[in-house]
Amino acid sequence: MFITMIASECAPVAKVGGLADVVFGLSRELEIRGNDVEIILPKYDCMRYDHIYGLQETYSDLWVPYYDQSVHCSVYFGFVHGRKCFFIDDHSDKNFFNRGVFYGHHDDHERFAFFCRAALEFMLKSNKHPDIIHCHDWQTALVPVLLYDIYKHLGMTHPRVCLTLHNLKHQGIVGESILREIGLHNTGHYFDYDRMRDNFNHSAVNLMKGGIVYSNFVSTVSPNYANEIKYSDENFGLGHTLHIHSGKFGGILNGIDYDVWNTETDSCIPYHYGIDNLDTKYGNKEVLRHRLLLRQDYKPIVAYIGRLDHQKGVHLIRHAIFFALNNGCQFILLGSSQDPEINNYFWHLKQELNENPDCHLEIGYNEELAHLIYAGSDMIVMPSLFEPCGLTQMIAMKYGTIPIVRNTGGLHDTVFDAEYSHRPYNERNGFVFDHFCDEGLESALNRAIGMWYSYPQYFRELMKNAMNYDYSWNGPGMHYMNVYKHIEEK
Fold it and tell me: Which residues of the chain have pLDDT under 70?
């Protein structure tokens, strides 16, 4: 099959969160299965250009319709760790992708609506007719709308579209003028509850809703999250739309790239290890402590790695820090927030705990340090309010670091409690709590700490169980191939 990924992120060149890892990892898996895969991205000025090989302009005269005029663009091609990537560079006065950041501007809806039109215009003019176009989240949800209402009539009759919903909290709710921007001039047609009109904000269109309506298949990133967003308020207003289109909707658990996350080959950690030489893991623990100026002591290290926002349970992350420190642990945090208030709060907390020899808060993100934290820690906390899939817990398990998670979304599908799961003992791999509160977190964290100190042999078995799980892209890749074949035949 010829498959084109259209996305706003791809690791490691343009990464904000797990979306980037999914685009890269799934593309690689699909290529391994014999498919021809291309990725189309914006050409941000803040990309990691050092991860692009052979970047060169490949299409210099692309004119993209925009309101009643056209915007001149160039398209570049390069390999990102073997993946074939095209980068769209606009030359408009608005400077859509040269902002120094990937997201966070007041005109993000306009920027990515333009990107959707530009991606399809490039495919049309370069005579690309993939079997499957795979789009991701609201930023590219206008692609199926444009494909079936404009580009199909210009000759692009072959592609079928799969849209993956990574997080329904962000849907792209915006005024109807966005439609005229990209050439969908019959706004009354789209401003209908059966198409793009938002289910609750009656004066706005919902880009993600449009993608759901127009796509041939809609996936989300774990089976449990698919169930949650159909039957709970975690759909943020899209429950009715998902119910109407339930026949083409399903959850496929994300995977992780074991070429990148592999304790036996990871170039970011000094000591390589596996299940058969698990003691070697603790060499990384000593190096981690030395790097972050933590004291060498007989204590478990509890870590948090990820974004700091309300979805991730920031107040519970804070509570986990002090609970761990007060119960014989060390704590390491690596993360930041796009919310200045949250970011400032953790900067102040860092200053407050700066002299504590058992704690280090690293505000920001450092990929190499993340690898060392996974390898050197004993436990990792994920007290999320909701978690569509979560990659952190899967990576942690591969590194023999025990996840302590709330029972939600993809965490429910991947982490099975050491004491209360109905699964056999050799399939249990972490600690789980239900209630989104301090007491819920304490119940799981306290059990994990207690097992580490009092029953080290059981904790070690739990580590081995976790490392034995296969959360690679092999399974998800097979499921997506089945989806592609299904919609191609329709």
Answer: none
